[in-house]
Design the sequence.
């Protein structure tokens, strides 16, 4: 495969993860802006995304595009599963430690699928069509997406430590170390924002020392920020996927072993 072909293949594999934030962030902003344009009386009571998609003219296209985003997430997951599994397989670990890391990997992907299911539920059902299913989907989405991010942070931290401990060169490692560091720090920020959003969800209906309008503005803005942080975190994997596919790192065995194998097949000059 030529360099150009490899770049195109890498871009194709990275595209689903890249498109998740590219589509979802403008979609969320559009939903709120469109709802307020059609219902200007809500300017004094800023709507949540749940209220915005309650209007069918907003909710129906929103739900359809969420299905597209969910499909993109599912398309990227197999590549990420393989990349993490290959990285873990490179490490010289005890059977118990290796099993623990594989369990973390399994949980991360199970939680991501559950979170995506919640996102579909909360958009396919509005307050008017089925309030309970909508709220169930919302709880599932926010809680499991935050948990997925937390588990990913743990994996990033452990894998980076193990790479350094075993002195595996960067060019032989599946992930770029700088992305391990970035993703761990970003994940902590995302989990912190989600926890604060949960606190706001609980206390917003209680008497507070600031006006109800200010509370609602803060709450609805945090909702958008948290959703954006979720999809930006997932979208960051596009960088790793592109790097791994372009440099042929998604295969079993070490890169050094592959190079030695290639050298063994070369003719010897005598």
Sequence:
């Amino acid at each position: 495969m030529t360099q150009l072909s490899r770049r195109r293949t890498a871009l194709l594999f990275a595209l689903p993860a890249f498109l998740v934030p590219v589509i979802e962030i403008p979609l969320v902003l559009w939903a709120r802006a469109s709802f307020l344009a059609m219902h200007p009386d809500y300017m004094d009571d800023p709507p949540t995304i749940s209220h915005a998609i309650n209007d069918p003219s907003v909710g129906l296209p929103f739900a359809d595009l969420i299905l597209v985003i969910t499909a993109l997430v599912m398309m990227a997951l197999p590549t990420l599963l393989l990349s993490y599994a290959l990285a873990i397989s490179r490490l010289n670990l005890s059977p118990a430690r290796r099993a623990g890391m594989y369990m973390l990997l399994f949980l991360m992907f199970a939680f991501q699928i559950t979170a995506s299911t919640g996102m579909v539920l909360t958009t396919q059902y509005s307050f008017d069509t089925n309030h309970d299913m909508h709220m169930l989907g919302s709880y599932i989405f926010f809680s499991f997406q935050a948990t997925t991010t937390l588990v990913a942070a743990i994996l990033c931290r452990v894998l980076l430590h193990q790479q350094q401990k075993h002195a595996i060169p960067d060019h032989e490692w599946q992930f770029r170390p700088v992305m391990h560091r970035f993703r761990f720090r970003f994940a902590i920020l995302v989990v912190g924002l989600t926890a604060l959003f949960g606190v706001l969800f609980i206390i917003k209906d209680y008497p507070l020392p600031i006006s109800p309008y200010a509370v609602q503005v803060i709450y609805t803005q945090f909702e958008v920020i948290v959703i954006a942080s979720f999809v930006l975190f997932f979208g960051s994997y596009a960088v790793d996927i592109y790097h791994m596919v372009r440099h042929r790192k998604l295969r079993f065995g070490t890169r050094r072993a592959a190079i030695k194998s290639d050298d063994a097949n070369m003719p010897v000059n005598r």
